[in-house]
Amino acid sequence: MWFWRLKTSLSVSFRHIRKCTTYTKARQIWEIISSKPPENGVPLKLQGWVRSIRSQKEVLFLHLNDGSCLANLQVVGTPDMGTSDLTFGSAVHVEGRLLPSAHPGQEVELHADRLEVIGPCNAKEFPFKAKKRHTMEYTRQFPHLRARTNSFAALLRIRSQATSAIHKFFQDQGYVEVHTPVISSNDCEGAGELFQVEPASSTVLKEISEDSGKETKHFFDVPAFLTVSGQLQLEVMASALSRVYVFGPTFRAEKSLGRRHLSEFYMVEAELAFTQTQEDVMEVIEMMVKQPTEQILASCPDDLHLFYKFVSPGHREVVEKILTSKFIRMTYTEAIDILRKHSENFKFRPEWGHDLQKEHERHLVRHCGSVPVFVTDFPRDLKPFYARDNGDDKTVAAFDLLVPEVGELFGGSLREERLETLQDRLDRLGLSSSYQWYLDLRRYGSVPHGGFGMGFERYLQCILGVPHIRDVIPFPRFPHSCKM
Amino acid sequence: MWFWRLKTSLSVSFRHIRKCTTYTKARQIWEIISSKPPENGVPLKLQGWVRSIRSQKEVLFLHLNDGSCLANLQVVGTPDMGTSDLTFGSAVHVEGRLLPSAHPGQEVELHADRLEVIGPCNAKEFPFKAKKRHTMEYTRQFPHLRARTNSFAALLRIRSQATSAIHKFFQDQGYVEVHTPVISSNDCEGAGELFQVEPASSTVLKEISEDSGKETKHFFDVPAFLTVSGQLQLEVMASALSRVYVFGPTFRAEKSLGRRHLSEFYMVEAELAFTQTQEDVMEVIEMMVKQPTEQILASCPDDLHLFYKFVSPGHREVVEKILTSKFIRMTYTEAIDILRKHSENFKFRPEWGHDLQKEHERHLVRHCGSVPVFVTDFPRDLKPFYARDNGDDKTVAAFDLLVPEVGELFGGSLREERLETLQDRLDRLGLSSSYQWYLDLRRYGSVPHGGFGMGFERYLQCILGVPHIRDVIPFPRFPHSCKM
């Protein structure tokens, strides 16, 4: 009752506030363009950056972009508005009236009563030029300005929509989002090289030591690292909330400079209690690829069109195939059999017990008709300690998902929930003492569970056909480079 | 057209998948409880953890919880199902049929045909006991198990809903979410002590040096730190996309062990291009407090009720007042005038040019009737270099939002967009050379803009009335402590 009263009174006040905002502030181009019916005759203020200028005897045409969508709005002014400050890249404030446009593909244009350059732009020094398509290699040199290009702005909008679609997928299915920690004292998961964290100023350590009355070498008393995966902490939460996920940054201190590697990247990880088989987890993954992708296609048609037309022609069909196909399932052993029949094509001989190389992954995906392929039941020695033992003394219930062009996109497994089996494994690896808390999860109401992780940037590469991972993240970090 | 066809065909296949999932898998309690009309007679599987057991002559009552909601489902079995393994905290699998319940407040109960303990729990060693309310100080000692308590599970669900509500607020208003980097080479913003990042293994540095043919002391060639704020990178993006936000982790290497400080915490930051006044930014903040809070109240009534009943009685009224009041605005100078009239109450004498102390913040909020207060136009020397100069040679367009109980919840400002003014400021501070990229944003189409940051954990403290910040984050990090 209380909630209801509150809700009613608030929604009234919000409407009020929102109305005021719209009225007194400048409008965004996406609002103007998506307004149905078109707002002919409406007087408004508009602010944005100049994308093109065409001056004729009687009339001045401008294309303005404000980053709210790919489209520019055409502004029609008088020639005297064309001052020397009005250049490509400058920021302007326009007041005028919307009128029907003769321009095909745009229903309205803004007829300017007043036009003011609020932020000039030295067009000679500005690294981007009017009407020129810059390569991704070129724009990558200007991380603080590249969002001013059509393609990178489109990427950022798609990335935001993709993030939103993935959250929606999990929330709709009752998953609880958990912020697993970035700084972690787990150091022995073996997922890759770690970054270590300590205060930049040694004074802090001294203060902390004095504070506690005992000397310490570390801010947290123990060595602390940037997370390589939130999985173990997610398992903690799945052991109480059943379904959990995290969408956050993860780190690798590796020297790799490849097209699929970054030192800082985003992972989507989920953990489900009460699983029975790898299939339970793979079903969720298949939906988690298809539903958000479908939503992105529906919500960003123009931005995607730019990619499929100019960046990766033909890629739309690749995505369409992923969406309309049932993903293939095969065991690691079957995969090796397939690969061995084509041994002559490979630099690395496919052999049971060895990891799949990129060339093998590519072959398997092609072999399956360029449809995503789950490779399941990997050899125990190729997967981390927590993967559930299949009981055949050889394999574990762990799998990868391989996709066209990108290769490995997901890794997942059932987790070993049997206390004794896990204890044995940790003992053999000499890890028992640091994982008592992890064993506790198996001591107090242990349940079968499983989960997966997906590299978010690779997902974007997969749906957009962007070759280099540095072009799908706002501020790429890799060896030798940490700009801004 | 293509999208439409795709969408139709997919939504058919998703329905198919979802139906299979529901049918073959165990159900979650929130689905069962929220099902209208109640699913009387439906056979189903259920899995969860035992919260209570009551054995009578003819019948065995269990309360099961699976973390999907606060409520337990009552299970009715036969006395022979009560094996010695069936204890508080154990995990069970039940198959049975839903029937109308005589229990008040629950429409259905599960009559068990089969009950199996899948994960026993040594109730003596398990740190939580049946029907006992544990204090937050006590549960905090078991970060890997505390999600098994009602109150921390409720906190996690509310935290997830709050995250979702904040994303929804920004997405609805056309903001683009930007993942600003966690690792950053900005080192002089002065927001606090920094954590520095290097590879844990020195081998990596050696490899990188060899790789590039020149020796390097740092993985990224320059010192790199954990971010204290994504603001500067958000400004980059607002200079192209107009409205952007980030919801991510930030870090402080400070020795503080207080109730409002963590070494790793979450910040919500937004940046808006084309602002005119501080009011433009404050309006967004006021909506950003009210709309998501209203949504959380509507989506988590039971979990919130637990807090308002047991953790912070009376706090519901505090929140209701925040939601229904117009936030107060006063300048810093007015605030100092108010405080000086009550100087005798304070340990720290309020004086123009000095920072507000916690006791001052508390007084100002009480003075305004326990309504949130914006304190605007701070002295220039108290705010960072980027705050926009008011032109009075004294103050800048920067403000804080103070809220009941928590104190400072938001900080925000207009950013200096005038090239010369900013250049002068940076020159005086000796920072010009490291901020050329930041000056570039003012060289190429600069626009007036502003933004804000909110500490997410403090927001949760504010709406839940939780005194200690360590009780609103899954894995708290602070000096001497980085568990798991």
Automatic annotation (TrEMBL), chains A, B:
GO terms for biological process: asparaginyl-tRNA aminoacylation. InterPro entries: Aa-tRNA-synt_II (IPR004364), aa-tRNA-synth_II (IPR006195), aa-tRNA-synth_II/BPL/LPL (IPR045864), Asn-tRNA-ligase (IPR004522), Asp/Asn-tRNA-synth_IIb (IPR002312), NA-bd_OB-fold (IPR012340), NA-bd_OB_tRNA (IPR004365). It comes from the Eukaryota. Its EC number is 6.1.1.22. The keyword Nucleotide-binding applies. GO terms for molecular function: asparagine-tRNA ligase activity; ATP binding; nucleic acid binding. GO terms for cellular component: mitochondrion. Residues 156-474 form the Aminoacyl-transfer RNA synthetases class-II family profile domain. The keyword Ligase applies. Keywords: Aminoacyl-tRNA synthetase, ATP-binding, Ligase, Nucleotide-binding, Protein biosynthesis. It holds the Pfam family tRNA_anti-codon. SUPFAM superfamilies: Class II aaRS and biotin synthetases (SSF55681), Nucleic acid-binding proteins (SSF50249). Belongs to the class-II aminoacyl-tRNA synthetase family. This is asparagine--tRNA ligase. The lineage of its organism: Eukaryota, Metazoa, Chordata, Cephalochordata, Leptocardii.
